[in-house]
Amino acid sequence: MQAEAFKLVYNRGVEKREIFLDKQDCTVFLHYLKMYLSPVEELKKIATPNFRINRFIPQNLSKELDLLSFSLMPNHIHLQIKQHTKDAITKFIRRLLTSYVMYFNKKNQRVGPLFQNRYKAILIDNESFLLHLSRYIHLNPLSVHSVIDFLDFSSYPYYLNKKQASWVKPQEILGYFKSSIHKDIKDMLSYQSFVEDCQEEAKDILGNLTLEDDFC
């Protein structure tokens, strides 16, 4: 994979099985995002004798990629990433999913793979795709009927300033709305309006980029 590139990264459960069974699972997955993507100096400050993070620091990738948006779904994940160094995404996904699978298997007393063998990463090569992909990712949880509020386990609250974290980087997308010069958002007052009020279907604009059939 090339350096300095925007990518849509996603994977699903093996045999389309659910990979998040309760809120704890979602919280743990976000914890691993935090460990691998928060600045190292920030991690060192929160370390305590009962909260050991030393094993994460050598594997931290905060300088190699930015997580622009994400959503967890019952049987798959969507990650919108800006990669700064070659192979950063490969290293990140391998470490992230390995950590989560070890947790999930131990919790549920199971063995074997949880995700399908190979994640997928697709280049985002224009600004319209960049914007509408974030919109698609943030709308995705609204279609889920579950006891888990998957919208709460997406980056959307961070875009609306309801949550803050150094490991989520909404500024790349929100920057377009400060200038309001892009043709796709020139009539939009805010990012929230773009996501919730835009009349065009995000998946129609993205076309085959989302490969939604993979998650049916």
Automatic annotation (TrEMBL):
PANTHER family: TRANSPOSASE IS200-LIKE DOMAIN-CONTAINING PROTEIN, TRANSPOSASE, Y1_TNP DOMAIN-CONTAINING. Residues 9-140 form the Transposase IS200-like domain. GO terms for biological process: DNA transposition. GO terms for molecular function: DNA binding; transposase activity. This is Transposase IS200-like domain-containing protein. It comes from the Bacteria. Pfam families: Y1_Tnp. InterPro entries: Transposase_17 (IPR002686), Transposase_17_sf (IPR036515).
